[in-house]
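User: Predict the complex.
Assistant: Input components as received:
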Amino acid sequence: MLRFVLRRLLLAIPVLFGIIFVVFALARLIPGDPCRAQLGERATAAVCNDFIHRFGLDQPIPVQFGIYVGQLAHGDLGTSLKFGRPVTDLIIERLPVTVELTLVALLFATVLGILLGVVSASRRNSAVDVVTMFGANIGVSIPVFVLGLVLAWFFAVVLRGTPFALPPSGRLSSGISEIPLTEVWGLTGMQGPLRVLADFVSHMTIFNALLTGQWGPLGDALRHMILPAVALGTIPLAIIARMTRSSLLDVMGLDYIRTARAKGLTERLVVLRHGLRNALLPVVTIIGLQLGGLLSGAVLTETIFNLSGVGRTVTEAITGRDYVVIQGLTIVIAVGYLLINLIVDVSYAYLDPRIRLS
Amino acid sequence: MANTTQALEAPAAARAKPSASLWSDALSRLLRNRLAIVGGVIVLGLLLIAIIGPYIAPFPYQSQDLDAVTLTGGPVAPFRGAHILGTDELGRDLLSRLMDGAQISMTVAMVVQIVVLFIGVPIGAAAAWFGGRTDSFLMRFTDVIYAFPDLLFIILLGVAFRETFFGQAMNGLLLVFVAIGIVSWVTMARLVRGQLLSLKETEFVEAARAIGVSDFKIVTRHLLPNAIGPVIVAVTLGIPSAILSEATLAFIGIGAQAPRASWGSLIADGQNYIRSQPHLVIFPAIAIALALLSFTFLGDGLRDALDPKLKGKQ
């Protein structure tokens, strides 16, 4: 097992370098003058020269790449041209929003998807099954941004004034604010990696409220999360439901299930204790594969629902030609993606020993 | 007794229709799949609209009916007057614009898959045939592309080349096609590699080698034709995701430039009127969903038809 993990880690290194190189190269190709994109069209030549020199943009491209890799090795992602702040600060502030959105969406998709898949499979060809599977087909065919807009329109415009109305943007209603857990727990003086972790968690509105017992803001944060999470989670939900159904149906045809039935177990026990356990293996892979799609979807969801996560920050940085932010965030997202794939591979190998031996 | 007769008759029946090739067999299985037929008919309809749309559209997609807009003081509502599906805020006929969008979507569907075939098949075939270092180099390369969040990569490409000649070609569409193709070939390369790896060990390949057929010919004449079924299925199922990617990019403002009307940009424009004129979002949304569903049904049907063993699985 350890050898398998080490081999996968070694294989990830060239991939990582490839990613850094591609991101760096593409960010350089973005046309336009970064100085005037940041300081405005009327910036004088002298000001621009100073700007270009300060950020090392006058060095040859290979030298810039060398400098960049060196900085990365020190955990320094550079300083945003636009905000004048370290990219790592931006990440600590905005990545939690994306992570929280993705986690809630994935939770919604997984729980409901497995449930619907099991119900569909155990009542094969019943009305429930047909409706669920047709719904799943439609679910994968609705783009995230369309679903997001329609949900926002329905719950914020059509249902306005009813108890079912839901807020279509932001993380908290105006007038409601949360105290970060670093303050609640008196950690403001803390430094180092633990502080970074504490800040990271405190930017996840739901977790922060949950950990510090701020129930009012918690309810508000949850209400704000419903529409984005449903918009983002529907495609994975449909895929997980389909996968659970077909995988469970396969397993339910096997001999050991017949044995379980023959010894007189109730159908519920047969499905849940014997069938589902083996059927979940491919579902785990599918869930892992969905995470990549969720990251892409998060970019759109954040734009539609006005959440300041990394997705929206990247798209804004692209229009604002903020090279450093584009590079930094793309690398962080790609590395996250790589790690998730690694974890999925490893957990799959753990669940199914045949894989790590081959 | 009855069983014996059947057993004796079965081979005779098989001999009676020797012309039942893989393809005619698959076709008859496909024709029995109702959802796939519906999907196929809608796909054909969309293709037809894409080709002859400009001649049958009620209005040119870019022409503005300023009188109608002035009269209503905004987008014209659907199902009244000359504009069956209404107009946008500039008085452009929505139905005609949707038809132009169909042309963009169908072109994306075709061009992206051509790019995918041209990159994915050779890379997958080379990796499988040469093996060893070539294989691991090519597969690490595909891993790099695969490790990238697709949308982010397309956006980066789109922005990087937006102002070059290449980015301006075909109203900005060529760039989008190529960008989507560049992220999509990975699955194809892996599929072809997997197929060829198992075919490579078969006896007919050994036979071909023994009589001195060149590597290139073995791959192109013997291996690839045997892998064509899964490739066709992958192409068909790749189409909806290409259409979706184009619509998504258009929605965030990359790709087709005004006055061309991609379904995605129609939704982005309609967004501003979602409170008063939701039809501007709803009709393009239906168009996208319909196209995606039809291609998915057709692809699922093709998969079941070409590889009955997989029927009912993902």
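The two ends of chain A are 12 Å apart (CA to CA).
Let me know if you want any component modeled separately.
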